[in-house]
Structure formats: C-alpha cells, structure tokens
Amino acid sequence: FNWIGTLWRGSITYETPMLWSLGFLVSFVFGGLTGVILASPALDFH
Predict the structure, then answer these.
(1) CA 15 to chain centre
(2) Domain limits at 1?
(3) Tens-digit pLDDT profile for residues 11-40
(4) How many Cα neighbours within 13 Å face the side chain of 34?
(5) Residues 6 or more apart from 25 whose CB is under 8 A from it?
(6) What is the DSSP track for 7-37?
C-alpha cells in the first residue's frame, strides 16, 4: 500500500523505470498464481 500512497494523485509518467516496475509486478503476480496451481499435483490424483 505504500506504493499506492506514493503514486496517489501524483504525476505518473510511463517512462522506462515505471514500465520495468509494472512489468516486474505483472510477472511476479502471474508467476505466483501459476506456481500455486502447478505446485498442487494432488488435485490431479485419481
């Protein structure tokens, strides 16, 4: 929440550092979600 507080009502520019940060966050969240799914092989057990 501290990042949101920093960016709140600010002048956000989508320059290179901001794009890298957004790309990292998307990659981190996507990897975390797929990691949870792939780490549970017990769901595929018959």
Answers:
(1) 18
(2) 1-43
(3) 888 899 989 999 999 999 999 888 877 777
(4) 6
(5) none
(6) HTTS-----HHHHHHHHHHHHHHHHHHHHHH
